[in-house]
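Dear H.,

Thanks for agreeing to be a second pair of eyes. The structure we're designing against is below in token form, covering all 243 positions.
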């Protein structure tokens, strides 16, 4: 069984630049979360364009070896073309996280600082995607602690994104994970993960029995800690894969 819950909210901003999407193909599921970059023109258009492009590709033929490469590169192509059309070159940008679940396997990809967490071994362990950001580099080199990423003054400085000109480093694609155990996943924009700590993510997962209840429990931390008069948009998709 695959149990999914999703939310995207405006927070304290004038409009919502986050965009979430669920796509299906036969018995396969694709979940997409994008965060249009604040401070850039048309971030909300970039996030929707990229998510819909990826969803369209998935709904056409589902998962296959090379899906993430093809889907992300097609979305990047379409976004760059839209920048030219609107005369907004290098201005419309977004992060992206994409999770695919088939009856046999699970795999994901990301670019930017929107995150995916995988929770496994009965909710006792987790792994997360590595942010493509300046503060992640500072953490990797030991200049700051992992816990300082959430509050660092440079936490919004990204090194990679959809809509930026790509160099040799672009998106990251995970290894394939088999569907052989009960596990869970959380896709989150930074407006959500900044306020929900990993130990709380694990605790609420173990304390709840549905995706919606788990998502509601985590959102309470966002509402408790964030200043809702000025906080960023926040979005999350949670998935419980029960075997």
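And this is the sequence the design step returned. I haven't edited it by hand at all.
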């Amino acid at each position: 069984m695959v149990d999914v819950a999703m939310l995207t909210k405006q927070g304290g901003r004038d409009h919502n630049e986050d965009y979430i999407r669920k796509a299906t193909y036969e018995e396969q599921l694709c979940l997409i979360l994008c965060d249009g970059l604040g401070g850039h023109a048309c971030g909300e258009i970039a996030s929707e364009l990229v998510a819909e492009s990826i969803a369209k590709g998935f709904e056409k033929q589902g998962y296959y070896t090379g899906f993430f490469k093809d889907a992300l590169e097609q979305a990047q192509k379409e976004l760059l073309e839209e920048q030219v059309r609107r005369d907004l070159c290098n201005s419309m940008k977004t992060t992206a996280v994409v999770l695919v679940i088939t009856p046999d396997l699970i795999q994901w990809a990301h670019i930017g600082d929107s995150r995916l967490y995988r929770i496994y071994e009965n909710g006792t362990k987790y792994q997360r995607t590595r942010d493509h950001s300046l503060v992640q580099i500072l953490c990797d080199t030991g200049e700051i602690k992992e816990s300082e990423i959430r509050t660092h003054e440079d936490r919004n400085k990204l090194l990679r994104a959809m809509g930026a000109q790509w160099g040799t480093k672009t998106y990251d694609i995970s290894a394939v994970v088999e569907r052989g155990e009960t596990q869970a996943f959380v896709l989150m924009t930074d407006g959500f993960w900044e306020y929900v700590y990993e130990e709380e993510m694990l605790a609420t997962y173990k304390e709840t029995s549905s995706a919606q209840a788990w998502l509601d429990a985590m959102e309470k931390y966002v509402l408790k800690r964030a200043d809702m008069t000025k906080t960023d948009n926040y979005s999350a998709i949670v998935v419980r894969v029960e075997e």
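Two observations from my side: The radius of gyration is 17 Å. DSSP finds six helices and eleven strands in the chain.

Warmly,
E.
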